[in-house]
């Protein structure tokens, strides 16, 4: 009886952080999917696949701006990298070289602010701002995400 | 002489023959005369060579480590080496191939450059490891090699010394690569010639220059590409995650072109990993080249081999 209880509480003690990490992984992936959804509105116009619409472009750029101002509280717990957890491509280097990771995120915030200022002006301004947004995404995916 | 001695002698003779065969098979090849003639007679153009440079992705391994998508393009033209390619066979470190006469390949002749690309053979006659994708470049035309070499002459010299690969014995014996070549070096194309001229040009870009198969095709136990599973995706040689099959089953030709130009997937995820360098290079090609690559990949997806 005691042994069963001990085993059960040990299993709980191991499972609890795993479950917490699963939630964090889902939350940050949801955050990036929302970024992608709004980026698809801007990118679709930039690539000429859908006509430029200043109001829609501004709305997407506003979302992009606010999404990148969302605090990352609780989204990156230790042990939620792809070596320790399933269902994530987040590389351990995010934690081992956290300063670079944060600098990249700050660059995305800057690019999103520039996009917010440009998207509603005209198509050329939107296209001009998109390169920097995509560039910051690429830089981070290059070093911090597994293929 | 008893039978034991005779068998022993015959065995020794056989072993000797076997050794001689291994010695012969592993001997580094030399350029055939028609290739030498084509190299020597082509009116080489550095402008044409720049297109070959970006399509072949030389900078993807030989530019300095740590470049990002926002790095100025001039930094991708400094081929100082130093990037590490981790594999099951050990770690390969890309050498300096800048125009520096001692640290790089500035003192080479065109035919030596061609032997490196088309045969995987160094000027001293030794074999290069297939981490250097001569396995794909072997399909290049001599004219493109000559144009690329003409462009090379416009690139800067860099004095950074090359670093040794980190390999374990017996892989340190380069002569063994000769046997590997006998098994795996195929200068023919993998996919039969497509009827569509765009897809045919795309085949040359994909299978010869861009060497897509080197990562996107799985390898067998000896490290050779498994042509039966051509571009069907593979474990990442560096250990993290998987290299996806190409083309993506749901992508259109337009999606592939947009991705190779901007790095945006149709769902506006953004390219990462070593593919980010590939996109940085592909974006510098004429749009027609990206359209030709897309035509080849779409034709491949529709072919019976899929």
Question: Can you walk through the features of this model?
Answer:
The complex is a heterodimer of chains A (147) and B (306). With 147 residues, chain A is mainly α. Chain A has five helices and no strands. The mean pLDDT of chain A is 90. Chain B has 306 residues and is mainly alpha-helical. The model of chain B has no long low-confidence stretch (mean pLDDT 91). Chain A binds chain B through residues 36-37, 39-40, 43, 47, 49, 82, 89, 91, 132, 134-143, 145-147, and chain B through 68-70, 236, 240-244, 254, 258, 262-264, 267-277, 279.
Blueprint of the fold:
The complex is a heterodimer of chains A (147) and B (306).
Chain A: H1 2-46, H2 54-67, H3 93-96, H4 98-118, H5 123-144
Helix pairs in contact in A: 1-2, 1-5, 2-4, 4-5
Chain B: H1 3-25, H2 33-41, H3 46-56, H4 58-62, H5 73-76, E1 84-87, E2 90-93, H6 110-119, H7 134-137, H8 142-152, E3 166-167, H9 176-184, H10 197-209, H11 213-216, E4 234-235, E5 242-243, H12 253-262, H13 275-282, H14 287-302
Antiparallel strand pairs in B: 1-2, 2-3, 4-5
Helix pairs in contact in B: 2-8, 3-8, 6-8, 10-14, 12-13, 12-14
Number of helices of chain B: 14
Instruction: Kindly report the oligomeric state of this protein.
Output: heterodimer
- Mean pLDDT, all residues of chain A: 90
% residues in beta strands of chain A: under 5%
Cα distance spanning the termini of chain A: 47 Å
Strand order of the largest sheet of chain B: 1-2-3
Beta-strand portion of chain B reads under 5%
Q: Count of helices of chain A?
A: 5
The span between the termini of chain B is 61 Å
Largest sheet of chain B, if any?
Answer: 3 strands, antiparallel
Poorly predicted parts of chain A: none
* Low-confidence sequence ranges of chain B: none
Query: Which class of secondary structure composition applies to the elements of chain A?
Result: mainly alpha
SSE order of chain B, as H and E? HHHHHEEHHHEHHHEEHHH
